[in-house]
Amino acid sequence: MKIKMSINVFLFSRNVFTRIAKPNRFGLWTINSRRKIQTQSVEKNSNEIEKLIQKSFYKQPSFYRYFNQFLIENNFNKSISDELKFYYQRTLDEFLEINDLIISDDGKNVTDDNDDGFIALAKNESLSLIERLIQIQDQILDQACVDDRDINECSFEIRAGVGGKEASLFAQELYNLYLKFITFNGWQIRMNEDFEQIELDDSSSLFTQTIEINGNGCYPLLRHEAGVHRVQRVPRTEKYGRIHTSTVSIAVIPVRHNLVTVKESDLKIEVKNSSGPGGQNVNRNLTCVRITHLPTGHTVESQETRFQYQNKELALHKMKTLLNQIEYERLEREARQQKRLQIGIAARSDKIRTYNFPQNRITDHRLADNLHNIDGYMAGNECDKMRQIIDKLEILRHQELRRQLRDLLEKNFVKSSSL
């Protein structure tokens, strides 16, 4: 008996593989890279169709476990709705249950010729479930690619590294540059009022400063600036015209509000006199606020403003950010223990960019791209080129994630022999 039917071949990612006419070397049936689901009509006898259905999917539902691990390792787990993951698992189970009715473990028919009608209905339902799985997985991939784009708040820390006074001077120059870049992108910034006064004073030095940034897409872009920035030039303090190499480190931490819940009963709030300049207000008023998280013992302080209630709000914000970041790092460590290659995290020990003033050149070592007119760049006159570099890095990051997903698919699908 021959059956002519249109078989929708199973695929997880519409962008991972290209369309082919038969299983590739990994035993995977694929469709093209466009969103439209491709079909191919095949005319086979019932036994060949059963074999094709068996090869169009994996034999065990273990891929869901591997894919869920991939989501956790790349911090995508919260991007995928529980409803969609449940719907995917339920559809997968339905497919396997119907497939067991059609084919036995050795790939042979489990019923006699009198059950051809029932088997035909089961095959049609099985193919319908395959098409539904393709659509669900397309939605899952769309949600996974959203990843951190909805994080519109981050903590931006700049710190002078190796190089002494020259490093602190360059840190101040980078700080001014990023302030202009933040304005260029329409983001908002929150910082110490006293520190804002030296924003444009290039002769001042900066050892460390942390600012809070709010704005659409600020974290996905600024995270590519995290790392070590190296400067090569003749310092202002150099008497003999020698070129020095100094470094400045930048850390970009996403502010995540939903990882942990901070209870007021777990907080110990103390007030005391602020330290540093400030006149009689510092000596007479208890403006500094210190908060201790009793379950973990972590402590933060705030004395940025002259008012206690404002410092309390800032300290609470710092505590929530700290606890969320600790939880975020803990989840990352647990997931990455089983994986060698890390994705999407900038290593602060590696230089990402070199600013060579004698050669009038800026080199991004991740792209091997060079920019010139370094004075104009540092003055904030070429923020558009700076944005282009970051956009390229974001594209490379997603390409790397696609590659990781492809490798995951190739390793965890059951390899089937070609027809």
CA radius of gyration: 29 Å
Low-pLDDT parts are 1-46, 49-61, 338-348, 412-419
Total domain modules: 3
Helix content: 25-40%
Percent strand equals 15-25%
- So how many helices? 10
Number of strands: 13
SSE string, helices as H and strands as E: EEHHHHEHEEHEEEHEEHEEEHH
Our measurement of the CA-to-CA distance between the termini, rounded to an integer number of angstroms, reads 19 Å
Mean pLDDT across the residues is 69
GO molecular function: translation release factor activity
InterPro entries: PCRF, Pep_chain_release_fac_I, Pep_chain_release_fac_I_sf, Prokaryotic/Mito_RF
Domain Peptide chain release factor: 108-225
Keywords: Methylation, Protein biosynthesis
What does this structure look like?
- With 419 residues, the chain is of the alpha+beta class.
- The protein is flat, with a radius of gyration of 29 Å.
